[in-house]
């Protein structure tokens, strides 16, 4: 009698395959709910059109550049868009926790970092689409990008780093708080001050001294500075390099915290 051969052990997919599958899942969800993208673009349209008209006369003051207030405002709106979108990234995890999908993911043979990274890739792709549309809206409103393609790519890179940071922070908070209300409340506590304690809407020279001091350590301000000088073609590469390194380090730390948070969540359920 021939002995039955033992079943071959199932091989675990590579980390990159796991990430790709998780990203694909989130992309499909976004594709089936396109209204989310359109709603997220209503704010930048309002900011550019409404703020641009209301504060148009400020463009005659020093510090706003040749394009007036619209040209100054567009890089700020670009970063505000990715900041607000990133702050909502954790809501998808809360939905997964409430529906039981998160428990299924955690019981599957997949790395915890893959779960976080896959969703982050989907969020960054979505933010790139949003960023491109914001720049088009800004151009139609009258902004001109003298930095050319290189300046646009530099602005998109800064937006991506900022988005990665706040997406991961939002995910970490969602996994720890496990509440939609708590996530929204905590996000607003940080998002609104970050916006107004920066040069997003106003040049540093027109801000109070203490706000200027806070702005120097504000990640949103770092990204805005990179984008604004890049789009204008007036890069100070020393400052750009420093801010890019700081944003990259912050994004890496936020990603690490998000991965630790999902492991903490798994231990508690």
Automatic annotation (TrEMBL):
Major location (coarse): membrane
Keyword field: Antibiotic resistance, Cell membrane, Membrane, Transmembrane, Transmembrane helix, Transport
Keyword flag Transmembrane helix: yes
Membrane topology: Multi-pass membrane protein
InterPro entries hit by this protein: ABC2_TM, ABC2_TM_bact-type, ABC_2_transport, Nod_factor_ABC_transporter
Regions that span the bilayer: 34-52, 72-94, 115-140, 152-177, 189-207, 237-259
Domain ABC transmembrane type-2: 35-265
Pfam families recorded: ABC2_membrane
Subcellular location: Cell membrane; Membrane
Family, per entry: Belongs to the ABC-2 integral membrane protein family.
Protein name: Transport permease protein
UniProt organism field: Naasia aerilata
Lineage: Bacteria, Bacillati, Actinomycetota, Actinomycetes, Micrococcales
């Amino acid at each position: 009698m021939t002995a039955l051969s033992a079943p071959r052990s199932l091989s675990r997919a590579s980390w990159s395959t796991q990430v790709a599958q998780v990203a694909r899942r989130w992309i499909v969800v976004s594709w089936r709910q396109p209204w989310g993208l359109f709603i997220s673009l209503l704010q930048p349209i309002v900011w550019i059109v409404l703020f641009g008209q209301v504060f148009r006369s400020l463009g005659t003051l020093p510090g706003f550049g040749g394009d007036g207030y619209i040209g100054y405002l567009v890089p700020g709106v670009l970063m505000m868009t990715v900041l607000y979108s990133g702050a909502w990234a954790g809501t998808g995890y809360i939905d997964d926790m409430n529906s039981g999908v998160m428990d299924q993911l955690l019981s599957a043979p997949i790395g915890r970092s893959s779960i976080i990274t896959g969703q982050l890739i989907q969020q960054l792709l979505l933010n790139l689409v949003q960023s491109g549309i914001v720049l088009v809206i800004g151009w139609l409103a009258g902004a001109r990008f003298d930095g050319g393609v290189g300046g646009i790519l530099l602005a998109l890179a800064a937006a991506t780093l900022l988005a990665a940071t706040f997406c991961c922070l939002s995910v970490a908070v969602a996994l720890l708080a496990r509440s939609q209300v708590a996530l929204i409340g905590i996000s607003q506590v940080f998002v609104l001050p970050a916006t107004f304690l920066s040069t997003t809407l106003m040049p540093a020279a027109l801000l109070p001294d203490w706000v200027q001091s806070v702005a120097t350590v504000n990640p949103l301000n770092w990204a805005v500075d990179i984008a604004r000088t890049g789009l204008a073609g007036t890069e100070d590469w020393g400052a750009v390099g420093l801010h890019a390194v700081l944003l990259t380090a912050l994004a890496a730390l936020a990603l690490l915290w998000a991965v630790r948070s999902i492991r903490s969540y798994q231990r508690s359920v």
